[in-house]
Amino acid sequence: MIPAHALAAANGSGPSIPAPHIEYGQLSPMLVVFGAALLGVLVEAFLPRRARASAQLGVSLLGLGGAFAAVVVLAAQGHGTTKAGLLAMGAVAIDGPALFLQGVILLTAVLAVLTYAEGRLEPRINGHRVDAFAAQAAAVPGGEQERDATREGLRTTEIYPLTLFAVGGMLLFPAANDLLTMFVALEVLSLPLYLMSALARRRRLISQEAAVKYFLLGAFASAFFLFGTALVYGYAGSLQLGEIADVVSGVSQVTPALAVTTQNDALLLIGLAMLAVGLLFKVGAVPFHSWTPDVYQGAPTPVTGFMAAATKTAAFGALLRLFYVAFPGLRWDWRPVMWGVAILTMAVGAVLAITQQDVKRLLAYSSVAHAGFILTGLIATDRRGVAAVLFYLLAYSFVTLGAFAVVTLVRDSKGEATHLSNWAGLGRRSPLLAAVFALFLLAFAGIPLTSGFTGKFAVFQAAAEGGATPLVIVGVLSSAVAAFFYIRVIVLMFFSDPQPSGPAVAVPSPLTATAIGVGVLVTLGLGLLPQYFLDLASKAALFTR
Amino acid sequence: MSYLLSATCAVPAAGAVLTAALPAGTTEARRRTTKTVALAVSVLTLGLAAAVAASFEPGGARYQLTESHSWIRSFGISFSLGADGIGTALVLLTAVLVPLVMLAGWHDATGPVSGSAAGSVPEGSFESKRRTQAFFALILAVEAMVLVSFLATDVFVFYVFFEAMLIPMYFLIGGFGDRAGGPDSDRQRSYAAVKFLLYNLLGGLVMLAAVIGLYVVAADQGQATFSLTALTDAISSGKLVIDPNAQRALFLGFFFAFAVKAPMWPLHTWLPNAMGESTAGTAVLITAVVDKVGTFAMLRFCLGLFPDASKTFAPVIMVLALVGIVYGALVAIGQKDIKRLVAYASISHFGFIILGVFAMTSQGQSGATLYMVNHGISTAAWMLVAGFLISRRGSRLIADYGGVQKVAPVLAGTFLIGGLATLSLPGMAPFVSEFLVLVGTFSRYPAIGVVATFGIVLAALYALLLYQRTMTGPVKAGVEGVKDLKARELAVVAPLVALTLLLGVYPKPLTDMVNPAVNDTLSQVHRTDPAPAHPVAATNGGEQK
């Protein structure tokens, strides 16, 4: 039966669909970033070529800074704690974890954009400074067109709006409260990343190969996610995470039409598994990690740093929300599987990293191992676990970004010298840079008094309290294996003889120096005095639904 | 709340930062400024340590001068320090040895980077300019971290500094050698440094799992704290009952880390490499200071936190210690390298210390504590004189020496005193402690005591054979030019010799300081001295209070 007044409205001249209520204020971080991205597109279209780079940098920094300010204001108004709630008809949740992770993503994006704008590393072409990105992305590598574009000193300034779109997707991803919004966010963050991976100025073929691999596997993973969404919808009759949870736990009444499918647990379990595959791909967990080394190696290093830090943060946010909001009732089903994934991820990441000969691949496998450590916190399934994961992501993002920023500085005539043999004796040529990189490596290894240790301690403690002692033991042993390859790099830098024709360390502009400096400060700060941020993470660790 | 203890730890830490930040330079004047500042800091630390010892009242509470600062509340961690008799004795040892090590290594950081790479670093490059600063800053950093470990009354704080001290130690071993090794001494040294770090890191990570496990067990029973005093009080009052199996697992986790650090057979193999390849001063820092943290921690943490498990495992550990005593001594006899000989002798001595700790008698544990101090002093004297000799001849091989006493009588004489102290000649300090350990062992485990006594005979063999081969007989080629000790070197050796003799005839101040803490430890493990079958009061009446 259709109510009479609805019919009347449909027949009349007034609008038949009620306008959704949109809380623009609470959505402002995302809106600001998307707005800045659109502005970036306009800059590309209307500004003269020479003015674009600095204009894009300005727009990006303003957009990201403004969004961060909005996040801080929202958090200060209590939208992370007391006023947390669902927005936009339940499609988006703004709560503690969402705001915390949005803040982390925005800060890492600011630092990443600083490293994008670095113009002093590549030799000048015709008096023009150029950056790490292809002169003309569409030109065939090695072709006539590319040579012309390079000689002209062109730059791909589109990287800035692309990054802003990706950041927008990343902000939405951990805040998405229904599966479709989550999927859209996944795509919005992924598509620009595929493009950005292909934009390296040097070694363009390997960069494009990386992009294709990332795109194909990423599209596959997205398809898994979408299929999972369909199956879960078939089971629960809703896309909203909270309503799915109610159906799973049998709280809410399902309509008779759905009662048939709701009996079918296979639908639910397969759906959940497919959703998890889609997200685990993004965080780089074993066995969905195989894209990581290729993409990390091929992508332009500033992009790799951004991807490694921000994508992981966003994807773990979504993973947390999915498991903690939609499927807490299925804990006994997904926990054993996630145990296996976590153990595999830690062990495989640590063991495969040992044999790597390329710094970027090494850091890629190390990021796989770290995904495993973070998963141990996720498995704790309590508030402490969420807090530990949030803190870990904060600590890890800055270390990763700093480490990749250092990688951009070690160069020879062919560009970045990422092969490990080139790093021999770096500590003797430029002790300061080597010491900074060693600090980042020690933080990755989880040595006390660095942020890495605090994070690792937090997740292991949460896991142990959640009864996952074997997981902690595997984690500790993988840490020991992982320590070996971090130390191997330190040995190479400090105790090996430099190669006569080895790389030189380029002197960066204040932009990259700022990024690295902030990385160092955060790494030490979160190691020595982490209390404030642990409090913040613990306050933020409650999901709304 | 007194700030004396944190000042004692903070002064060398601040000194390390200050030394590292001093202006670089290759001129001797610049270097001397750096060294003088570092030495002044270490002397100031000695003054503060003396103040700690002076204000320590042997009859008072177990932990005195206690202070506690909030550090990481989320983890239940406060930065708590407290001095007990055992800790104070070792703080004094550390504070005495560090200035002497600096003085002994006055020129160790000068000159080319290393034997084979001498030409590869241009003179005046950043690295060679900063070398002196790095060397002395690292020594001060190690001192600060060791002091915190001896004074920490919070399990977490202890763990953090126990683990963090590996990093400066690692750079000291890997970065600064004695330039007396073979052509591939660089490779050997970096191998030694990595081996040191990996062994100890693995031990530390296993301990990390146990630290977390301890917290989880304690938190389950409402004692969510890392405070050592709170935990031991709860354990001895029965408020905290750790299930026997869990207790054994946790004990093994802690003990493994300490046994690697001590080092106990069969986890000792890193020590000969590390001591052989580093400078004599660094070797002293390793064996006389850093390793003492391991045996000290067995006494304070293993026995205090896991009394029942300690009793369960004591026989096994005693046997391993016994193997270490005999094995270390036998291998020392067969060594061709002077520094490796001292290293194996130390392994034998660490066997005695561990024997004393786990005999669980008051003589045994007082003896073990005195042994730590006396071994530190006597080995420092022996090793540093050996280092002076090696720096003159440029070789570590025993076979390259002979007849040194004819050309350098003072050097030979002090070397003899060091050797005699090592073999525990009556009248020298180590005799008192070795005697106490053996008496303490006999009264509970007569068979083990009998075998351990053979260690003394073997010690006489390696110490006297070394003296005979290097110092007596005809003057070998290459030894003629060996000059006698200089004023600086005499200033290093004289205090050590004086202390060896003084503590040999009058150990009472030290035993008075140590005994109450030992008795407290024994009461924690519910052990009393077994009634002697024969009256032995005449020999140790002075020590038993």
UniProtKB/TrEMBL annotation, chain A:
Catalytic reactions of this protein: a quinone + NADH + 5 H(+)(in) = a quinol + NAD(+) + 4 H(+)(out)
Alphabetized UniProt keyword annotations: Cell membrane, Membrane, NAD, Quinone, Translocase, Transmembrane, Transmembrane helix, Transport
Enzyme class of the recorded protein, top EC level: translocase
GO terms (BP aspect): ATP synthesis coupled electron transport
Subunit structure: NDH-1 is composed of 14 different subunits. Subunits NuoA, H, J, K, L, M, N constitute the membrane sector of the complex.
Protein family according to the UniProt entry: Belongs to the complex I subunit 2 family.
Record's function text: NDH-1 shuttles electrons from NADH, via FMN and iron-sulfur (Fe-S) centers, to quinones in the respiratory chain. The immediate electron acceptor for the enzyme in this species is believed to be a menaquinone. Couples the redox reaction to proton translocation (for every two electrons transferred, four hydrogen ions are translocated across the cytoplasmic membrane), and thus conserves the redox energy in a proton gradient.
Entry protein name: NADH-quinone oxidoreductase subunit N
TrEMBL record, chain B:
Disordered as annotated region, ranges: 525-545
Any one GO cellular component localisation term in the record: endomembrane system
Bilayer disposition of the protein: Multi-pass membrane protein
Subcellular location: Endomembrane system; Membrane
InterPro entries: NADH_Q_OxRdtase_chainM/4, NADH_UbQ_OxRdtase, ND/Mrp_TM
Keywords from the named record: Membrane, Transmembrane, Transmembrane helix
Family: Belongs to the complex I subunit 4 family.
Protein name per Swiss-Prot or TrEMBL: NADH-quinone oxidoreductase subunit M
Species annotation: Kitasatospora phosalacinea
